[in-house]
């Protein structure tokens, strides 16, 4: 039972992770919600479920029902999965899933051969900023940034990673080296201009930026501190 639950939870891991990461600020609807509902009901009905609080439901702006897990439930799912899978594997799945959902639900503009944007209508997104925290949730963000850039090397993707100077873990060093290889800039501070300008061009009539919040996951404690 534990193995079955583990396998199924892994299958749904990335979509569950995405919502736990982004649901607070996002008002789009997701095709993944069905998966999340299934995953969490399996989680709650399996022998591995120990969380006392049932998953709750919420609605997107299009009134699509989604299931939200508590901090404790999300941590428990990871505990089960970590018996069989490595952090690298789960992080890769989580980051890839975030990148896929962003690409699926937003019209992302890359640059064409003539350096003009491929999609330049008002609804298109010209920039993606991934803000990464100090823990594994931040690692998920580093992975997401890499995948978005690999989907289309002309996408304007950047990472804000305040812990950059103090990175010691080999996993994080590898992730940062991969971003470097893919030409994804990593900076330590979020400058407001990053959200407003595109490559310094302040004359653009319209500029859309997506900010991916990968700051804190289920190990978040208390009010956000510097
Ligand atoms: N099984 C795994 O390990 C995986 C987890 N994944 C994702 O990672 C997070 C949980 O990761 P963890 O490293 O345990 O913690 P966080 O990323 O949530 O951050 C811990 C980090 O943050 C600091 N901190 C805590 N509270 C605050 C606060 N209020 N203000 C500022 N800083 C805070 C704390 O000191 C630590 O340094 C999980 O949610 C998943 O998203 C991966 O997907 C891979 C597998």
From TrEMBL:
First and last residue of the signal peptide: none
GO molecular-function terms, A-Z: metal ion binding; NAD(P)HX epimerase activity; nucleotide binding
Listed Pfam families: YjeF_N (PF03853)
Annotated keywords: Isomerase, Metal-binding, NAD, NADP, Nucleotide-binding, Potassium
Domain YjeF N-terminal span(s) in chain numbering: 74-226
Catalysis performed (reactions): (6R)-NADPHX = (6S)-NADPHX; (6R)-NADHX = (6S)-NADHX
Parts forming coiled coils: none
EC number: 5.1.99.6
Record-linked SUPFAM superfamilies: YjeF N-terminal domain-like
Highest taxon listed in the record's lineage: Eukaryota
Matches recorded under InterPro entries: YjeF_N_dom, YjeF_N_dom_sf, YJEFN_prot_NAXE-like
Enzyme class: isomerase
GO cellular component assignments: mitochondrion
Protein name per Swiss-Prot or TrEMBL: NAD(P)H-hydrate epimerase
Organism the protein comes from: Bodo saltans (Flagellated protozoan)
């Amino acid at each position: 039972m534990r193995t079955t639950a583990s396998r199924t939870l892994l299958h749904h891991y990335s979509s569950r992770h995405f919502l736990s990461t982004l649901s607070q600020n996002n008002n789009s609807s997701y095709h993944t919600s069905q998966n999340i509902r299934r995953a969490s009901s399996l989680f709650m009905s399996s022998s591995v479920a120990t969380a006392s609080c049932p998953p709750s439901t919420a609605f997107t702006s299009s009134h699509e029902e989604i299931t939200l897990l508590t901090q404790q439930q999300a941590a428990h799912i990871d505990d089960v999965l970590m018996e069989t899978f490595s952090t690298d594997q789960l992080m890769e799945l989580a980051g890839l899933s975030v990148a896929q959902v962003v690409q699926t639900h937003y019209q992302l503009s890359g640059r064409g051969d003539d350096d003009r944007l491929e999609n330049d209508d008002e609804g298109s997104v010209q920039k993606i900023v991934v803000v990464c925290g100090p823990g594994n949730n931040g690692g998920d963000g580093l992975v997401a940034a890499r995948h978005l850039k690999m989907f289309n090397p002309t996408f304007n993707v950047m990472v804000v990673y305040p812990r950059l100077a103090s990175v010691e873990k080999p996993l994080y060093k590898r992730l940062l080296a991969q971003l470097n290889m893919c030409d994804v800039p990593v900076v330590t501070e979020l400058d407001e201009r990053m959200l407003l300008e595109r490559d310094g061009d302040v004359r653009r009539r319209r500029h859309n930026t997506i900010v991916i919040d990968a700051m804190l996951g289920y190990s978040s404690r208390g009010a956000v501190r510097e």
